[in-house]
């Protein structure tokens, strides 16, 4: 959608519903196409749910990007001496319709949880991914879990679609859910995305400030946040240890930076 059209929709208060209609149209166009079967044998979500997660209704990319993302999570933990299979519990925060969650179906002793603000996606996950437990959340915290519930929380391309106040609120909440020594893995639009910014946005980014486009679309792919690494390390993740920073290291979310954070 063009910036001028988006600005007009914002001024008349129709930005968010118009973007949802745009997503629905993309899903409708894909509805009649033959969808490849998933090699894991699990059901494939309908296009209307996939497009909200992946920004496209392409089933093949939905499945492949989920596989790559799971590999990124496992590899990052392995570099710090941990295996997914050895964790007591993990949370896929912003799980959508299970793009990555489905990759943990074979875990025998790890409790797998998913949370998302999209109630329709959560309903689909509950009906089709019985090995995990799913919960709906609001756009703002809290989550209905006790403090210290998880060894790992990951949020893949979640903070990339939230305005600043919600980012800090959710960071505090996810830190609360970690056990001491637990890990929080998140991805961001970093230096690779700098050239996509307007001149004033680029100046803010270069000064170490967070840039957020279309905050009215918080929680959708319309809202886009761009994180200078210094902002993440000094502001967003100030309460935790940065165990790993990999520029463009999130394989399932192309060109996004990967951060592995540890609760003290």
Walk me through the structure.
- By secondary structure, the protein is α/β, with parallel strands linked by helices.
- It has a single domain, classed as 3-Layer(aba) Sandwich (Rossmann fold), CATH 3.40.50.150.
- 35% of the residues lie in helices and 21% in strands.
- It has eight helices and nine strands.
- It has helices spanning 3-11, 15-30, 47-54, 59-78, 119-128, 164-177, 199-206, 229-236, and strands at residues 89-93, 111-116, 133-136, 150-155, 178-188, 211-213, 224-226, 241-250, 256-262.
- Helix 5 (119-128) links the parallel strand 2 and strand 3.
- The N and C termini lie far apart (43 Å).
Topology overview:
Blueprint: H1 3-11, H2 15-30, H3 47-54, H4 59-78, E1 89-93, E2 111-116, H5 119-128, E3 133-136, E4 150-155, H6 164-177, E5 178-188, H7 199-206, E6 211-213, E7 224-226, H8 229-236, E8 241-250, E9 256-262
Helix pairs in contact: 2-3
C-alpha Rg, in Å?
A: 18 Å
CATH architecture: 3-Layer(aba) Sandwich
State the domain count. 1
Estimate the global geometry from the Cα principal axes: globular
CATH topology: Rossmann fold
The CATH homologous superfamily name equals Vaccinia Virus protein VP39
Largest sheet properties: 7 strands, mixed
Mean pLDDT: 91
- Model regions low in confidence, pLDDT < 50 over at least 5 residues: none
Structural class: alpha/beta
Q: Strand order, biggest sheet? A: 3-2-1-4-5-9-8
Helix fraction by DSSP (H/I, runs of at least 4): 25-40%
Number of strands: 9
Question: How many helices does DSSP assign?
Answer: 8
The helix-strand sequence is HHHHEEHEEHEHEEHEE
- Percent strand: 15-25%
């Amino acid at each position: 959608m063009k910036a001028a059209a988006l600005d007009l929709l914002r001024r008349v208060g129709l930005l968010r519903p118009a973007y949802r209609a745009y997503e629905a149209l993309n899903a409708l166009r894909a509805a009649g196409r033959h969808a490849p079967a998933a090699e894991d044998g699990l059901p494939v979500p309908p296009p209307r749910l996939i497009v909200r997660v992946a920004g496209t209704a392409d089933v093949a990319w939905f499945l492949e990007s989920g596989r790559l993302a799971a590999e990124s999570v496992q590899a990052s933990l392995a570099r710090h001496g941990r295996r997914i299979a050895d964790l007591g519990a993990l949370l896929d925060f912003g799980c959508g319709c299970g793009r990555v969650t489905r990759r943990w179906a074979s875990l025998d002793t790890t409790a797998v949880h998913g949370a998302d603000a999209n109630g329709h996606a959560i309903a689909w996950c509950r009906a089709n991914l019985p090995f995990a437990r799913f919960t709906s959340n609001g756009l703002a915290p809290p989550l209905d879990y006790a403090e210290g519930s998880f060894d790992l929380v990951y949020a893949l391309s979640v903070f990339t679609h939230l305005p600043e106040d919600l980012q800090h609120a959710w960071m505090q909440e996810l830190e609360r859910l970690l056990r001491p020594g637990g890990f929080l893995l998140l991805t961001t639009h970093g230096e690779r995305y700098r050239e996509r910014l307007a001149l004033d946005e680029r100046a803010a980014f270069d000064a170490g400030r967070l840039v957020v486009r279309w905050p009215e679309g918080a929680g959708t792919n319309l809202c886009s946040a761009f994180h200078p690494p210094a902002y993440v390390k000094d502001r967003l993740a100030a309460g935790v240890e940065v165990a790993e920073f990999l520029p463009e290291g999130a394989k399932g979310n192309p060109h996004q930076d990967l951060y592995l954070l540890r609760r003290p």
